[in-house]
Amino acid sequence: MFFFKRIFLPALFLILLINGGCDKGIEPRPTDEIPGFSGRITFIGAWPDSIQRTHIVVFDSLLEQANDFNVFNLKFVSGEIPYGVPYYDFDSRDSAYVPIVPGTFSYIAVIQQQKKDLSFNRNDWTVAGIYYINGDTTHPAQLTIPEKTLVKNVNIWCDFNNPPPQPPLVR
Hints:
By secondary structure, this protein is mainly beta.
């Protein structure tokens, strides 16, 4: 015990002092090093009364077949979007159930569900809007997120009077 109190603790303190302590400890990474995407979701028309939850989702591959909807293809799920808003400005780094990582993604959408609890069952989701670019609504746009980069202007329009094509349901 003498060795520990008289020699080890002062030596440890000296080493930490000389080396600058813990070098910022558990301080979070600077925001500009975290990859992500941001933009605005615009809602057109009256929100359906039955909606309980609204989220942004990102998939690696397009949802062309029912089996494309799976946990391995799902790459991002945002925090909840408030009900009834006319628009919503977002930054994927703010909150997410599944955070985004760098990569290229083929299907970015705003989904809504009628269940109160978050569900990862495709049959519980309705797609309210899809990310398109240059006015081309025939094919969802790809989104590439490089390392340490925030991709801006990922804007999505959700027209409740003219909803986008829905992915196949899981049977």
